[in-house]
Design a protein that fits this description.
single chain, mainly alpha, Non-ribosomal Peptide Synthetase Peptidyl Carrier Protein, Chain A
Length: 84
């Protein structure tokens, strides 16, 4: 089973790749907008999550609280994985 810390690390790494930034500059509690992750890059991140964890997030009813930060999205990913 995945834990939140591992999912956060994965999301930080993927966000850094998408944004062409140093992974150390991506903090789990940083808001996505502050990171510069906008709609198209966010969809790219969701696709990475779906491929890595074999879950569907795009149509899963994500709400604004899930999208606040890497940490909140990681919590949602773990929650989805628990329901598989």
């Amino acid at each position: 089973m995945c834990d939140v810390n591992n999912v956060e690390k994965f999301l930080c790494r993927e966000a850094a790749l998408i944004l062409n930034r140093d992974e150390q500059s991506i903090k789990p509690d940083s808001p996505f907008l502050d990171l510069g992750l906008e709609s198209m890059s966010f969809v790219e991140l969701l696709i990475c999550i779906e491929k890595e964890y074999n879950i569907k997030l795009i149509n899963s009813g994500l709400d604004t609280s899930d999208l606040a930060s890497i940490s909140s999205l990681a919590q949602r990913v773990v929650q989805e994985l628990e329901h598989i």
